Amino acid sequence: MAKRPKPLKAPDKLVFLLSFVPYLLEQRVVDVAEAATHFGMTEEEIRDAVRLIATSGLPGETGTYQPNDLFDIDWDSFEDDDVIVIVHHVAIDDAPRLSAREAAALIAGLQYLSASPESAGSASLASLMAKLTAGASSAPSRLAVAETAADASLARIRQAVTDGRQLEFDYRNALGQSGRRRVDPLRILSQDADWYLQAYCHTREDVRNFRVDRMSELVVSQVPIDEHADRDVPDTLFQSSESDLDVVVDVAPETLTLLADYLADSSAVEVDGRLRVTLRLAHVHGLKRLIAGLPGLVTVVAPAEARAVVAEWAAAGLAGYGDDEASVVDDERGVSADG
Question: Single GO cellular component annotation (predicted)?
């Protein structure tokens, strides 16, 4: 004999009812037995919940309940056939809804996630995008996230990580230096919109981070990777080293949390309404992308070399607006110059 479920406590019953009503509205027509199976409850508990719903509603302007202020069900179907059909509901449609612009922004974000290898073909993401589209106050704008070369490479890199095979590729580091690398891929990590491969580099004989969009001529070798169980692999993407550069900057207080990964220490001094802190970077060129991502919120104070690099990069970008083809320079901070 099946063990009877324990009666729901008041908080659990409220959670159940908040889920039960949308379920009935979505199903439109549902048997009591089917609903009981879906929620893991007895059929009598489902019938009691239906009767409770039928006495619930939202009072009108007079503060009293009129016929149209209450939920109503098809009583003949319920009492004769044990079938639940809500024929009138209240308040549900008055819930705040996303604007078309808000829904479009969320859908674009989900499309970006769908483009990643681990989420490709995800039914749950597709279902969520459909619900956002249907639930918006008006039809969202149609957006598409284009696949990049990095997206195409990610699938091959992930397969190499899974199979334990070496990778070979041409790599251009943040300083613009290029070379052929042979690595043992360890794992794939992400930082903002960028993807990185953390791997043991046979050229450098150490663990390095490689930005995927800087790779080219990628080849998955048939050679298995070496054993690295005894090697210290960092848990975080970026690690400090003795060769790192300290850069003093003034930042808007609300921006400090965005720079947490780069802070050399927790000290901060207020200067003219801003916080003066020290960032630690692998090289001065790593400042370019960081400053560009926080326009007007970060000012480089020292050293002079860092100020000059950022100023020259900004001037070059500004000059590009006068050309038909604007030059694009990007950089990032990494474990070393390979980053």
Answer: proteasome complex
Greater model confidence, 334 or 293: 293
Q: Check whether residue 160 and residue 130 sit in a common domain.
A: no
For residue 58, tell me if it sits in a domain.
yes
Query: C-alpha distances in angstroms, 124 versus 128, 131, 144, 316?
Result: 6, 11, 18, 44
Q: Do 85 and 107 fall into the same domain?
A: no
Domain match, 157 and 112 both: no
Give the per-residue pLDDT at 169: 92
H or E element at residue 22: helix 10-27
Q: Does residue 54 lie in a domain region?
A: yes
User: 197: domain CATH number?
Assistant: 2.30.30.100
Least confident of 31-40, 62-71, 163-172, 241-250: 62-71
Mark whether 215 and 256 lie in a shared domain: no
Residues 14 and 90 in one domain: yes
For residues 291 and 298, is the Cβ–Cβ distance under 8 A?
yes
Number of domains, the chain: 4
Letter for the amino acid at 68? N
Give the residue ranges of DSSP H helices in 96-199. Answer: 100-114, 123-135, 149-163
Task: Report if residue 170 sits inside a domain.
Answer: yes
Range of the domain at 268: 245-320
Model confidence pLDDT, tens digit, residues 298-313: 888 888 888 888 888 8
HSE-up (13 A, CA, CB side) for residue 136: 19
Residue 63's pLDDT band (cuts 50, 70, 90): low
